[in-house]
Amino acid sequence: MANITDTSSSPSVPSCNIYPRSSMIHGVSDHTLGVILPTLVYIAGSLVFYAFNKFELFSNYRIHPPKEELHRNRVSRLGCLLNVMRYHVIQISIGLLLTYNKEAEFVKMGDCEIYQWARRVRKSFMVIPWALTLLGLDIQGLISTSREAPLLSHILATSHDILSSPTFTAIEWNFARVIVSFIIPAIQFTVYLAVVDTWVYFLHRLCHINKTLYRVVHAQHHQLYVPYAYGAVYAHWTETIFLDVLSFILANTISGISVRQGMILSSLATLKTISDHCNFVFPWDPFGYINGNNARFHDLHHQSWGLKHNFSTYTVFWDRLLGTEWTDVQGADMRYVRTHELVKARRKINEINVAHPKAE
């Protein structure tokens, strides 16, 4: 096989046969692993934050004081846990049903895909000189002045020998490798994220606009005024299917990602959901650092005064575009402080009543 670092040659024509990809874990198909993995990630992530709460770690990063949930939440931790278990049973059942008897994912052997893209790259390069000629530019003059820029010189060269050559230059081959290894996955990720984020935003917002949907379905999730990690997916079963599960089915189908890409993205989405409800705002939180959609952003939506804001789950794109992002930072801080003080005062009154019950 030729050295692809050579500026005039590339690997020989590869075999383009396809073969079933072996599973990552012996005896467990990638499809099955992809269905179960988000639940395993959910359990692991929830246990980490449960430990933070249990041992009062990183208390300076908490949004709500300890035990405030006991006075504000409308569901017990046990009731929430049972609901979350049902969520994962539904999610896994639908996933296993959709992948039942599904064959292993087929992949192309060796560098076949890179070879195919190298051919496309070459053809696209050949269009550029033609387009520049139509614009009245002196191609030969440009070539003579671009000798020290191999890529530009190669693109401008219109030799028939280059087009008909059975091998590729290192420039063509490496460009194709970048497309296959980075550009295509980046596009797939962007499409995947756009589909999920768009679906969740508009359906979530609809659940708040339509009073019946909110009362019957979505209000259950908002029984958690003080969210915690393992309660992230506490919701009505209808919301589980149509808001969560269906959004990822659509994203997988439209983006065309592979099974293993799906494992990575669904795991990241699970971690993001846990992070949104964890009741901690860490300065090193990668999700919040990227676009500002962090635990504080979503926790504000869980407050009675923030229900009509911050509908997005993964980005802030739609909230900012459509004006539903909460932007009054100082106003939010004041409301949080007032809420904490009211809960604290109520707790003291309850303690006094318990210690000194009124005589009948």
From TrEMBL:
<feature type="domain" description="Fatty acid hydroxylase">
    <location>
        <begin position="190"/>
        <end position="324"/>
    </location>
</feature>
<dbReference type="GO" id="GO:0016491">
    <property type="term" value="F:oxidoreductase activity"/>
</dbReference>
<keyword id="KW-0812">Transmembrane</keyword>
<feature type="transmembrane region" description="Helical">
    <location>
        <begin position="178"/>
        <end position="203"/>
    </location>
</feature>
<dbReference type="InterPro" id="IPR006694">
    <property type="entry name" value="Fatty_acid_hydroxylase"/>
</dbReference>
<dbReference type="Pfam" id="PF04116">
    <property type="entry name" value="FA_hydroxylase"/>
</dbReference>
<keyword id="KW-0472">Membrane</keyword>
<protein>
    <submittedName>
        <fullName>Fde285a4-4672-46ef-a50b-44c87e257589</fullName>
    </submittedName>
</protein>
<keyword id="KW-1133">Transmembrane helix</keyword>
<dbReference type="GO" id="GO:0016020">
    <property type="term" value="C:membrane"/>
</dbReference>
<dbReference type="InterPro" id="IPR050307">
    <property type="entry name" value="Sterol_Desaturase_Related"/>
</dbReference>
<dbReference type="GO" id="GO:0005506">
    <property type="term" value="F:iron ion binding"/>
</dbReference>
<feature type="transmembrane region" description="Helical">
    <location>
        <begin position="32"/>
        <end position="52"/>
    </location>
</feature>
<dbReference type="GO" id="GO:0008610">
    <property type="term" value="P:lipid biosynthetic process"/>
</dbReference>
